[in-house]
Amino acid sequence: FFSNAISRRITAPLARLARVADEVAAGKLKKPVQVEGTGEIKEITAVLNGIIGGLSSYKTKMDVDHQLLSMKVEERTSQLSRRNKELNKAVKEVTETKDRLRQMAYYDSLTSLPNRRLFTEQLSLLLRLANRNDQKLALLFLDLDNFKRINDSLGHSAGDLLLREVGIRLSSCVRDSDVVAHHVDSEAKIDVSRLGGDEFTVVLNQIDERESAGVVAQRLLDALVQPMLINGHELVITPSIGIALAPQDADDVEGLLKAADT
Q1: Residues 45-91: pLDDT tens digits?
Q2: CA atoms of 216 and 207, how far apart (whole Å)
Q3: Which pTM was predicted?
Q4: Residue 198 is among the residues annotated as catalytic for this protein
Q5: By the 8 A CB rule, do 75 and 83 touch?
Q6: Which residues form the HAMP domain (predicted)?
């Protein structure tokens, strides 16, 4: 009996230490353990508790590092998202600025029609294409005979409204006219421009003959002589339209303008 008791006192702590070692190996034990015993038992217990303490400290450090890493990732993601939004905003502002600058450079501020600069660039290109493809092109030059009198008598604001209405009627007539579609190639580019003052132009690309330009010009005149209601005044304007063909009358922009304005 006595020997059995001594054996149990020795083997029981060892068995418990074995279980503790298994739990430590499995990562299940986080707190130090207390095992009764002397000599080697205490030394083994101290070693195991040292291991448990080290593992606990390491795990705590790993948890903190993981949290810091997660915070850094979230912070970096937030920074990237914010910078991406700022970049998109900057790109949008640059694009809008470019559009505004192009609008100011190439379009008339009063009527929003192409201005003289854009008209010149477009017509130069069309003339080169027409020459290369052996095609005809017509320039219609339009001005308002009684515009100065209307402008002087009713004021510049009324004159501006009248010019806007002229631009609207010209654009609408060119866009919707069956006459234009009949006499000009359906794929041709047709542009109404305001050169300045009361001077407007219409370019008919890939036209078949001079008489066709005359038919279109008459259609434009008919649209413009209809009364216009400006600031409570019913006004009737008297437009004049000159016609020049390329390459018969001229083969450059200035030459066509001069031929159409005579």
Answers
A1: 777 677 767 767 767 777 777 777 777 777 777 777 777 777 677 67
A2: 11
A3: 0.65
A4: yes
A5: no
A6: 8-60
